Amino acid sequence: MGIFFDTLKNEDIRRYIVKNVRENYGAGIDFTKTPIEEFYGSNCFSNAVMRETLPKNIYREVVAVQNGEKELTLEVAEVVAAVMRDWALSRGASHYTHWFHPLTGLTAEKHESFISPTGDGRVIMEFSGRELIKGEPDASSFPSGGLRATFEARGYTAWDVTSPAFLKQDKTGTTLCIPTAFISYYGQALDKKVPLLKSIDALGFHALRVLRALGNVSTKRVFTTVGAEQEYFLVDKKYYDMRPDLILAGRTIFGSMPAKGQEMENHYFGAIKDRALGFMRELNTELWKVGIPAKIQHNEVAPNQFELA
Q1: Confidence check: pLDDT of 145 > 60
Q2: What percentage of the chain exceeds 90 in pLDDT?
Q3: Is a pLDDT exceeding 60 seen at residue 272?
Q4: pLDDT confidence tier of residue 10, bands split at 50, 70 and 90
Q5: Distance (Å, whole) CA 19 – CA 140
Q6: Same domain, yes or no, for 45 and 27?
Q7: What is the pTM of this model?
Q8: Are residues 168 and 232 in the same domain?
């Protein structure tokens, strides 16, 4: 807990934390000075950005690949990679990563810088089409569900053209994140994206069959949307750091029951407290920057439980 906390009793620590917690309402943003439509998608390499920065013929090729009408060629990937690199560098990025979802329940990333030595003691900023399309992270320590033997450690990441790249910014810098699928050497899915993409394709295929049976012959593609409810609990980090059960297990294991629970259901859709609203505003701002259209926020049933949609 640090030297300062070590000199205090538990009740003194709690009083100190409560005082600081009550004073923290988040940074906030003034939307009258910075309208949402001006910064929405500013950290996302979306189709709108590609339409403005790519040559027209290359943009049409990319859209055709996204719609499943063509396969991605290396020539197209080279142009997209060069434009994506320049876009990321202009916004302060120094590294890129193939961002994927292994079976750990978390995201995974391996950062690689854009620098390339020239041989005379200098570097240039490079990012090729091959580096955009494919990566080779070590898959030996990722779960596979028994799909492969232990010694078959090689894994590949493949660029998902249907998911836009985005910038991840923090206090230390900016990283270009490229959404990818993660597969084994023999093509087995080692992540959650590949099954999702396959299910979307299967659903779209059979939905078109139904439409044809109903006499619709003009529709070429069916778009599907799916997602889990984004419900969460808010716990101030200063309180969280005092609870080994939350840190190690992600849930409360010891301690007393709260004086007020969810018995009366009066928290559901109730007025949102200022500190929770401050967090939601910061969260919405970051989501809007990467092009995620967060629209709904409200109190859920349990105390300190909220939902985002």
Answers
A1: yes
A2: 60
A3: yes
A4: low
A5: 47
A6: no
A7: 0.85
A8: no
8 and 90 both lie in a single domain? no
Burial call 182-203: b when 16+ CB within 10 Å, e when fewer: bbbeeeebbbbbbebeeebeee
Q: How far apart are CA 274 and CA 80, in angstroms?
A: 43
Query: Is the pLDDT assigned to residue 23 strictly greater than 70?
Result: no
Domain enclosing residue 53, as ranges: 41-190
The count of domains in the chain is 2
Q: How far is CA 63 from the centre of its chain?
A: 22
**Residue with structure tokens 């013929």?**
57
23 and 48 share a domain? no
Rounded to an integer, what is the distance from CA 10 to the centroid of its chain? 37
pLDDT of residue 1: 46
Euclidean distance between CA atoms 90 and 176, whole angstroms: 11
Residue 162 and residue 246 in one domain: no
Same domain, 89 and 183: yes
